[in-house]
Design brief:
alpha/beta
């Protein structure tokens, strides 16, 4: 039995999946497997998966190509099937259009061996121009670390990590019930993991090259609105906020639907609850979180509510 299973869902990814597979196998330890789930692709995805795993005519034995059962549910359905198709102690993630960097798994595995439950790395973004034109940009995200004692507070302000950099213990994933069918299945999993007392960490180093393009579901306004309004994600957020602050808080994004006075009061309540645990971290680590909190407050002030007004009462 491999110690680590890296799950890679793929659907019509013939142009990128070979590089994703090749780079991930190169970065993986010997006692690991790459489990690729082909979700009903109509192109040459399966062929390119095998091509990416083949060297000198031999397919890497650590590759396992799984044809997933079709149905509703999108990526959550695929990830759940891949989890059930593996039984390793540790579970990692990769996407079909990203590139793994050398050392990403060894760095995460060292942290898990010391007692962490879920470890992430930072990403280098490869931003593709809309329409597939020229002008792609490489944008490295600042690789500063986030320790377990501050990770949950970051989650109350934003999603500070990238799903395909994750490596976690199966024990934690089982304990919180795995992935759920919600719009932001990754952020929802982080919230529930932190609320359950899991030790989550982001390392101060890059782990993948992450492609950013207009076809991603997270670039969709419809997806964003569905995520902001999802009741189960709101409950997971409130559970974590109660654990960290003693107060069940609303997500900042959901406050944008409130009218001026209500929104200002709810944001003030939020800030009053999160500032004490942030400041308890000490000035150096608290500084970044305070800046993030202030940025979120500024963002909220400028959001239009359903009547078209922001906090200053201005309309478009």
């Amino acid at each position: 039995m491999p110690r680590l299973s890296v799950l890679l869902p793929a659907r019509n990814a013939e142009s990128t999946v070979a590089k994703a597979v090749r780079s991930t196998l190169s970065a993986m330890p010997a006692d690991a497997e790459l489990v690729v789930g082909d979700d009903g692709s109509s192109d040459r995805t399966a062929e390119q998966v095998l091509a990416g795993a083949t060297r000198r005519g031999v397919v890497d034995p650590r590759l396992r190509l799984v044809e997933v059962v079709p149905g509703a549910g999108g990526i959550t359905r695929v990830l759940t099937q891949l989890l059930e198709a593996s039984d390793s102690e540790l579970v990692g993630r990769m996407d079909a259009d990203d590139i793994s960097l050398p050392g990403r798994f060894s760095a995460a595995l060292r942290c898990l061996a010391r007692g962490d439950d879920m470890v992430f790395l930072q990403q280098i973004e490869l931003r593709e121009p809309a329409g597939g034109g020229a002008g792609r940009r490489i944008v490295p995200r600042v690789p500063y670390p986030i320790g377990p004692d501050e990770f949950g507070l970051h989650l109350l302000l934003t999603n500070p990590v990238c799903h395909p950099t994750m490596v976690a213990t199966r024990d934690l994933l089982d304990r919180v019930g795995g992935y759920r069918e919600v719009p932001a299945e990754d952020y929802d999993l982080w919230l529930r993991s932190a609320a359950a007392g899991g030790r989550l960490r982001r390392l101060g180093r890059w782990g993948i090259v992450y492609r950013v393009h207009s076809a991603q579901i997270t670039a969709s306004g419809q997806w964003r609105n569905a995520s902001w309004a999802d009741e189960r994600q709101a409950q997971a957020f409130a559970d974590l906020s109660e654990r960290l602050t003693g107060v069940r808080l609303s997500r900042i994004v959901s406050m944008s639907n409130l009218t001026g006075a209500e929104r200002e009061a709810e944001m003030a309540r939020f800030a009053a609850a999160v500032r004490p645990p942030i400041e308890a971290l000490g000035s150096r680590r608290a500084a970044g979180l305070i800046r993030r909190l202030e940025a979120r407050q500024s963002w909220l002030r400028n959001q239009k509510n359903p009547s078209g007004q922001n906090l200053q009462g201005e309309t478009e």
